[in-house]
Amino acid sequence: MKLDPRLQRVIFWIRAHSTKLTILMMIVVLGIAGAALMEILKEIRIADIQAAFGKITTRQILLSVGLTALSFLILSFYDVLGLAAIGKPQPYWRALLGSFTAYNLSHNLGFAPVTGAAARWRAYRGTSLDAADIARLVVIAGVTFWLGIFLLLGLFLVLFPGALRVHDATMPYATQALIGAAVLAGIAGYLVACARQTGPLNILGWTLPVPTLRQALIQFALAATDIAVASAALLVLLPPETWHHYPDFLVAYVVAVVVALLAHAPGGIGVFEAVVLVTLPEVDKPSLVSALILYRLIYYWGPLLIAIALLGLNELRMMRRRGPVQEGDRDERISTDLPI
User: What is the pTM of this model?
Assistant: First the structure.
């Protein structure tokens, strides 16, 4: 099929200016998010936010840090699962390094397929993985994450009336439940396809393994658990009397994550916070703002610094070796009880 010359010129122009267009889009998104946040926060006094910060206890902070560590530990098994699926398992420390650095860079910089692939490429350097393997790993990890998002969203839309709202406007439960049921039907279709799979997908000569039913169920369990734990790391920074709102809170968290990812703002900054604020009208706003600021430090910026340091140390390790890949680095296999 031959493209219209005018369309070809447009495509070539977009490719030639892709970097500038990406930066421009990020500036626009951040500007809109900033304006939205300013509007949401205009009635909240700085003194109230400072007072809310003072009420957050050391125990709550430590609990949030622990849940953050648990979330990244769970995320490491995305890579364990993906490496096993492509037939190239690695030592667990390597999977942990790859996932931890990839998710921290993608969480904070946006454009997860690109930043996540770049981090994994450096983390898995010196192994038997090539560029195509890294791409497959990124796809499998991304699919695992979205499966967890859709599973939780579908379940909560069906089980909890009024879960989707903006300020005081609530979606009718019939519409909400219909959306949730459609999401769960799609998940059921995915599981059936996995149960009936006969081999890998072949897309333009590029093969991608299709998970077995058991692997797909593990994907759902890992992703749903991770999202629940990551959201709890924010919830525990709120006043304990609000913790019983967890079902509503989890829906708000999932929606905020999805919107932030689609917006491609670096780390979803501004976008994530704005969505959480408008979808949780029952939570005290100063308390929610202070929790969101602290969560940004604990879940995003703190681990990012650790990830950069780990990548740097790995680069130094590789520079010191300066020799051919050692057999132990190629042939070590991860010992895991995952039934895949």
Answer: 0.80
